[in-house]
Amino acid sequence: MASTSTGHRRRAARQVTTTEHLGACLVFPLPQSTMTASSNVVSPYLVVADEPIPKEQKAAVSHSAAAGTVIETVPVTQPSELKPGEALVKLLYSGVCGSSWHQASDHWDEGKGRVPRPLIAGDEGVGTIIAMNDPTTTLKLGQTVGIKFVAHTCNECPACLHGIEMVCPQAKYTGRSVNGTFQQYSLAWTSQLTPIPDMPLELAAPILCAGVTVWRALKDSTAHAGDWVAVAGAGGGLGSLAVQYAKYLGMRVVAIDNERKQAFCREIGADAFVNYKDADFVQQVKKVADGLGVQASILCSNEPSSYLTGTHYLRPTGSAMIVGLPPTGSHVPVDCRNAVLGMHTVRGCFVGNRGDVIDALDVVARGKVVPKVTVKPFSAIQETYDCMKNGTLNGRVVVDLCRH
């Protein structure tokens, strides 16, 4: 079993004073108001772990969709460069999220150059804080934390104040607008770092994007304990967690996927399985769910065709929850008459807020949900993307950033 967060919390810390050197930066006594990273002088609030911090690191870099993702040497942000509210995290594991594959493959870009290159993707990182410049945070040096998809928000706009900071107009997103977690050291904002409870770290990683997204989708749906839910793409990274969280919440689950994933879906707790390639699969789902249909469909698939039928097997008052992000141009068609008479809801689900992540992690830390993960070396990211493309992955892949 991988090291747990308890062991990673035991790191010595030292306060950087006004008479110390930090790298090439000589610190002179100055008025406190001028002592910031932007003035080329180390902040008096900067704390650094008592361990060497290298100048370079390994990272998985994508220069273009055609070139794929390769391991390269890139610079490490140094503690002296940290601005107020920032931290440096030494990453140990990262989940390989379907959104990272889409980003690297330009599935949402349509060739218009919107994906920054070179790209360091990844949005499910777990590691320890080794430097921090924030006197206001309750986080501690050496604490085990998670870097999730939402990297930074303003904390002042209506979205942030109402607990939906993931749609903050000023939000920065890990692996999209800022470098992601497919690297060994990462700059992060303390306000969006997630404390990791005492648990195997390889199980924590996939909760930081996939897990919290399906957790929030289930909580926001119209389904409750005892209700039937259908999970489209149930055998993948998102879908498998949706099945497991739904079972934890007391729901009955119809797993929808291709036939070769039936055994896996049964293993993780699905009550029934339907092959989406069957011509009558919509009728099969309805038949399983008391002949009426499911209370919620959790749409996790990368396959656009899965969304075309997302509302077809709902019972009255049912909700279709759009979780996966298929290529641009995918649709969930809604028959207005059926939607009105059935009182149906169609809703998008965009990760979750800070509280949602903590709740989703707690369920795993208590052993109520055990994510099905395969731990691979850092160099296996492109291989994992290829498996996603072929639809051959069961569960989630997590890469060990210490193994090349």
UniProtKB/TrEMBL annotation:
EC number(s) stated in the UniProt entry for this protein: 1.1.1.1
GO cellular component, one term: cytoplasm
SUPFAM superfamilies reported for this sequence: GroES-like, NAD(P)-binding Rossmann-fold domains
Molecular functions (GO terms): alcohol dehydrogenase (NAD+) activity; metal ion binding
Residue intervals of the Enoyl reductase (ER) domain: 68-399
Swiss-Prot/TrEMBL cofactor(s): Zn(2+)
Keywords: Metal-binding, NAD, Oxidoreductase, Zinc
Record SMART domains: PKS_ER
InterPro entries: ADH-like_C (IPR013149), ADH-like_N (IPR013154), ER (IPR020843), GroES-like_sf (IPR011032), NAD(P)-bd_dom_sf (IPR036291)
Top-level enzyme category: oxidoreductase
Family: Belongs to the zinc-containing alcohol dehydrogenase family.
The protein's name in its UniProt record: alcohol dehydrogenase
Organism phylogeny: Eukaryota, Fungi, Dikarya, Basidiomycota, Agaricomycotina
